[in-house]
Amino acid sequence: MRIEEVSSTTKTQRVATHTHIKGLGLQDNGTALPMSAGFVGQEQAREACGVVVDMIRQKKMAGRALLLTGAPGTGKTALALGIAQELGTKASSCVCRAVLSAPASRWQQALGTNWEFIMR
Fold this sequence. Notes:
mainly alpha; 35% helix
């Protein structure tokens, strides 16, 4: 038996990113706590997401899809997961890096494919 054929006996476990996010960290009046639910800072963004959560709960917004835009590393994924935690739903996310820099036909096709996945 060659060494390449021997499989490892150690268990592998995948740890997902943003597992520390437990919600948006908002008070009952909708203001963000400086450090809560896995977030540090981003008070204005969390409060804005809290408005979205309230609108979804009040059935003023369908809540099937939400597009967050911004520069890399600004917390879009963490905010999306915080919203999902607040609503008690599983979240699926689609990262569309550099899609909009492609010709219109290509990003429309990519968005259409991802939109079909999200709406399932």
